[in-house]
Amino acid sequence: MLKKIEKKTEVYALGQHISMSADKARRVIDQIRGRSYEETLMILELMPYRACYHIFKLVYSAAANASYNMASNEANLVISKAEVTKGTTVKKFKPRARGRSYPIKKPTCHITIVMKDISLDEKYVEIDSLKKPRWKKKYRAMAYHDMYGGVWDKK
């Protein structure tokens, strides 16, 4: 009996109970979905949001999982799936004046990052072979000199 051996092409990293609203984390996740590993790290380092730190750690962990489990190169990794789900809400009561209490609700979220190695996937290998252009570049960038000696481009 012959068995078909399938190579694993995807790895994931999961962060649970991160103390942050799911909407705030989704704002960052939407920017990195479908991008390469190196491009994702650059985007996350330059974005000014608090969620970037947690997502950066998860992307880095998923890349470490890929290099350890599949022995893949980081240049071949692409984020194939990134999702944020709502977690539990931590509820506390803060004492207020006249014996009253005020509820404090701290939302949490779960973040899942799935990375795919495109060198192991047959679909991406076929697309890479089609990258040769079949036509020459028709338009060239023109540079003009202004009267003060500077150069500016015309498109």
TrEMBL record:
Pfam families: Ribosomal_L22. Gene3D superfamilies: Ribosomal protein L22/L17. GO terms for molecular function: rRNA binding; structural constituent of ribosome. It comes from the Eukaryota. Keywords: Chloroplast, Plastid, Ribonucleoprotein, Ribosomal protein, RNA-binding, rRNA-binding. One of its GO terms (cellular component) is large ribosomal subunit. One of its GO terms (biological process) is translation. InterPro entries: Ribosomal_uL22, Ribosomal_uL22_bac/chlpt-type, Ribosomal_uL22_bac/org-type, Ribosomal_uL22_CS, Ribosomal_uL22_sf. It is found in: Plastid, Chloroplast. Belongs to the universal ribosomal protein uL22 family. The globular domain of the protein is located near the polypeptide exit tunnel on the outside of the subunit, while an extended beta-hairpin is found that lines the wall of the exit tunnel in the center of the 70S ribosome. This protein binds specifically to 23S rRNA. Part of the 50S ribosomal subunit. HAMAP family: Ribosomal_uL22_B (MF_01331_B). This is Large ribosomal subunit protein uL22c.
